[in-house]
Structure formats: C-alpha cells, structure tokens
Amino acid sequence: MTDFIREIVEEDLRNGTHKTVVTRFPPEPNGYLHIGHAKSICLNFGVAIEYGGHCNLRFDDTNPEKEEAEYARAIVDDVHWLGFDWGGEPLHASDYFDQLYAWAEHLINAGLAYVDSLSADEIRAHRGTLTEPGKESPYRNRSVEENLDLFRRMRDGALEDGAAVLRAKIDMASPNINLRDPVLYRIKHEDHHRTGGKWCIYPMYDYAHPLSDAIEGITHSLCTLEFEDHRPLYDWLIENVPVPWRPRQYEFARLNLNYTVMSKRKLLRLVTEGHVRGWDDPRMPTIAALRRRGYTPASIRNFAERVGVAKRENVIDVSLLEFSLREDLNLTAPRVMGVLRPLRVVIENFPEGESEEFESPNNPEDASMGTRKVPFSRVVYIERDDFMEDPPKKFFRLAPGREVRLRSAYFVTCTNTIKDDAGNIVELRATYDPATRGGDAPDGRRPKATLHWVSAEHAIDAEVRLYDRLFNVEDPEEGGDFLAHLNPHSLEVIEHAKLEPSVANAPRASRYQFERLGYFCVDRDSSAERLVFNRTATLKDTWAKVSGAAGS
RNA sequence: UGGGGAGUCGCCAAGUGGUAAGGCAGCGGCCUUUGGAGCCGCCAUUCGGAGGUUCGAAUCCUCCCUCCCCAGCCA
Question: For strand B, is any atom closer than 7 Å to the CB of A318?
C-alpha cells in the first residue's frame, strides 16, 4: 500500500533527509475517539511501524476547560485496543509547559511577540475580514521590558481571564488570517487535569503543537486538511524559536462516513441529550462503541487501509466498514444457532421425552475450529420468518407440505399449522425423516432450504439487541438539524431469544456467528443470570433483498 | 470579491506524456447442510469544462466552472 504521505516519507529516507521516521497521534482529551481518529491512528502508527520508526501518543491538553482525565484514559485504552503501542507512558503537551513558556519569553525578547490588552471583541474587530486587512493593535509596539513584565504578571495570576493575551507579531495585513498576529497564550484561571493549579496561562494549539513536535523530534507531523493554512504559522514558529529539531507538517483528508455524524460536538450532544446510552452505545461511531458492538481491531485496521489516504474530501460508504468486519469475522467467529423470534415446531413422529445430539461444525471455513454437540428433541424453535403459510414464488423456506433441512439435524416436513383465536400461527406440526440424520438423505434429495433451529427443552434464554443505523439519511448534517434524522428504530431489543446451550457460559465480548442471522457479541451488560448479546452485523440475506425490493 | 486546498465509475482510489489498476456497492451466473461464505463474469472509448502543445495528454500550457477550509482568547 502506498499514498502520498508514505511517498514523502520514503523519499526523505532515501535521500537522507531523515534516517528514521517519528510521527505522533495528538488527540485532545475532550471526548472519545471515533472511527475518523482510527484512520489517523492507523496512518501515524502504521507509517512508523512500516518504516521502522516510532509514533508517540501525545495528548494535546492545552485547554483545561474542556479536558478530562477520564477521556485521556479512554483514549489510551482505545489506541491499545486497536493494536498499537508507543512504549511507555503517553506524552502530554502539558509536559512542555515550562519550555513553551521560556520560548515565549524568547519571542518577546526577539521583538516577535507582545502582550495585547485589547479585549476579545476588540481583537476580533481589528482582525479584518477575509477581503480586508486587519488593523494593528495600539499595544503592538510595547517595549520588550513592558511585554516581559506584563507576560510575567499574566503568568503570576495578576490579571483576570481575558485581560490580556500574548500575540505573535507577524503581519496584520496578511491574506492568511492565521498570520494576523495570532494569539499564543491566553489567561485561564482554571486547574489543569495534570498540572493542577500551577498555571493560569495556557498556550494555544497553534503555538504548542509545532513546538511540541520539535521537542519530540517528530519528522512528519500529520494532520487534517483544515490545518493546511496554519502551516505558515507552524513554520514561522519553528523558524523563530530556538528549537532542537525542525518538524514538518503534512495534511490529509479526514474520514467521513455516511449515515452518521463525526464531530465531537454532535457526538457529545447525542450522549448528553440521551439519544444514545453513552459514548460506547453500540450505535455510536466511537471506537469504544464499535468495540462494544463486536467489531475487531483487525477489521478496523483493514478498513482504514482500504479507505486510503489522500487530500480529497471523502464520504466513505458504511458498507465498506461492514465488509471489513464480515471478512474478518467470517474466518474467526464460531458458528452457533440462535432463534430471535421463535415459532414452536412439534415433530409429531419424534418420540416424546427423548433427545439426541448432533455434531455441528464450529466454522465451515476452518475445520481446525472443530465441532460441537447440539441437542435435538421433539419440540424445536425455528425463526418465524422462516415459515410462510402462503409462500410467494421465490420463498424457499418452510411452508405447509414443504420439506426443509434443519441444519445438522433432519429433514422435516410441515404437516399442519396451529392458530390462536385471532388467526395467528402459534405453532407448527411436522414430521421428520429419520433416514436424513445429520442432514443428508440416502436417496439424494435436497431441500431448497436449510433452517437454523434450537431444541425447546435445551434452549437458553437471552436478550439480543439489534442495531440499525443511527440516522436514516446518508448525510445527517443536511438541513441543519441532524437530530431530525435520528432513526427511531436504531435499537430493537429482543427479550427472549432462544439460543443453543453451548453459548451458556460465553464470556463478555466473545463473538459468534448465529447462523443465517449475523454476527453477535456478548455485551458487557451480560451476566450469568442473563445473557445479553449485541448484533454486530447482519449476514447478507438474499430473500430480504428480494422481498424488500418487491414489497416497496 | 483575499488566502489555502480539491475535482478520475454510485462511494473510495491508483495513475506522474504512451493509450483508464484495485476495493466497496450494484447486476448476472456457478456452487452451497448458513438464500452466509466461495468462485466466475459484467460494471469509465473516458478522467469538471473549453481551447492549445504533442505522433500521442487524465497526466504539459491557457482560460473557465464547481466544491471544501480560514475572520475562537477551540483543537
């Protein structure tokens, strides 16, 4: 695999610009990581691994108002879960606050930074617009001594929040607004989750980021497109601060996925307004949610690889994510039978009170995964959807008079339907052919369908949570109010699914394929008393597609 | 109307002057004790548009069009 970033890295290695590659993944601990971050993580760590370099996990913790240790813990967890390691403790921009402060004084001494006493509103007014140049602040030409004194008073807590800021002295007329004397430090009398009450001034991202990269010896600082026009400022700082190393910034397009939202602000709203049950609700696009839902780290890494890295805005189809998941789980998930919406079938010619066991493969794709025993008896449950009293043309499943195969068991023929007073089918009567034990007929006849089933007397009860997309339109942002597009049916809870007994002691987070239905994983809400499964993804169902197309 | 980016199949994405990779989705067919999986085939005479250079252009030049980002003491 290659992309323009890797080409740059290779070229730098080839021509001796760098002897090794050092990248970094720099999340702000103000929310949970989502699938978009996964792309960046896979890029940064992937490049480092591929070229024998190193990738740091560095928290960009320069704004104590929004950041929390809990988020930082979750982020460390998620990156590890994805399969990456940075050796040792994570790094923090806040580890460099002393150095960053010293360099700020350096800029002041060099006449390249000044303390501005204008208010936030006044600064905005002086900034100009996209088409008009800005105006210089009346405080722009304070002496070095005055600036130093003021900046130290800012640091020492003598000034209120908003009373002053430290600004770079660059060019108020620059067509690039980021160069119109950007703010470097602001006053925030706020405790920081790591430095506590030590500081009451905090550096801005634009100031802290390039210098942190320099401190860490980052060779390639990879970020998203919206920072492209911050690069001149990034370079200005590297140029004008006596840094020990000169990192370079490269920008790539962030990942977007259809049928979901990706901005932290919107995800936070979904959580705080109760539209989902927390950051790791399996319907969320967060890594924690995908993990809880049953996604594998490998599937997400493969997805990130397939998506590619370029500078073009993109919206990836969720089906690609689902494909990557199925591809992995198909090979690794043990098969099991479970019935979501049970319909009783009484096999009238099977002796009452007796039962037998069948050997069923744990994974037809991989014989080394072995087999398991599945009990069978006179009464079994099948899926309600697998029976139709008056089947249309292409419906191959069970119907009156029709013979189908019960997977790994026998051929059964439906002989009768039992209905309640309202006319609903409540039970089926059937006969089985003892000669078809194991699922093959000596005379070679082959039913058109094979159904999954569970022996009623052996079945275990479980809650199964079925998830659908959180939003019912491809682009929830369209029209302004993304909440208006929430899918009211994104969660359906099956209270009493019937599962084969082999899953009775399935540990949390273990993944299975329920044959013909999809991939399921044991939720963390699960207990010995009550098994709870999440449906990670459905299997492709050709009949659903045929009937769906015909029905609408 | 300032600056910075981007435009190749429904969605991604290779391609870097020699005659449009690949993946997902979709559509056919084969196979099947999961209507799963697998396998086979189809799916851009055309690269935002118009000119031009060239034996030859998605790739070079010119003009035009469209989309995205930037006016936080957020990142």
Answer: no
Rounded distance in angstroms from the CA atom of residue A13 to the C1' atom of nucleotide B19: 34
pLDDT of residue A318: 97
CB A216 within 8 A of CB A56: yes
Q: In the structure, what pLDDT confidence band is assigned to residue A550 with cuts at 50, 70 and 90?
A: low
Check residue A546 and give its pLDDT: 85
Nucleotides, chain B, CB distance < 7 Å: 1-8, 10-16, 22-27, 33-38, 67-75
Question: Which single residue is written with the structure tokens 């082959």?
Answer: A446
Distance from residue A404 (CA) to nucleotide B32 (C1'), in Å?
15
Q: Is the CB of A189 under 7 A from strand B?
A: no
**DSSP characters for A342-386?**
EEEEEETTSPTT-EEEEEEES-TT-GGG-EEEEEEESEEEEEGGG
Give me the percent of chain A exceeding a pLDDT of 70: 99
In terms of Cβ atoms closer than 10 Å to its own Cβ (0-12, 13-18, 19+), residue A413 is middle
Tell me the per-residue pLDDT of A479-488, one tens digit each, with 9 for 90 and over: 889 999 999 9
A69 and A213 together in one domain = yes
- CATH number for position A325: 2.40.240.10
Q: Are residues A101 and A187 in the same domain?
A: yes
Report CA(A227)–C1'(B15) in Å, whole number: 27
Q: Confirm whether any atom of chain B, the nucleic acid strand, is less than 7 Å from CB of A187.
A: yes
Residues A418 and A345 in one domain: yes
For residue A350, give its domain range. Answer: 338-451
Domain boundary among A451, A475, A500: A451
Predicted confidence (pLDDT) per residue in A378-399, tens digit: 999 999 999 999 999 899 999 9
For chain A, how many residues are written?
552
Asked if residue A551 has pLDDT above 90, the reply is no
Examine the domain organization and report whether A186 and A95 are in the same domain: yes
Q: Are A21 and A144 contained in the same domain?
A: yes
- Give pLDDT, residue A548: 76
For residue A549, is pLDDT > 70?
Answer: no
Q: Are residues A433 and A474 in the same domain?
A: no
The contacts of residue A391 (CB under 8 Å, 6+ apart) are: A397, A399, A402
Q: Are A9 and A79 within one domain?
A: yes
A488 is a domain residue? yes
Cβ A408 to strand B below 7 Å: yes
Catalytic residues of A: 28, 254, 264
Q: Does one domain contain both A353 and A411?
A: yes
Domain membership of residue A544 (yes or no) is: yes
Percent of chain A with pLDDT over 90: 97
How far apart (Å, rounded) are the C-alpha atoms in residues A349 and A37? 58
Of A451, A476, A503, the position where a domain reaches its end is A451
Calculate the angstrom distance between C1' of B6 and CA of A226.
Answer: 12
Q: Is the ipTM of this complex over 0.95?
A: yes
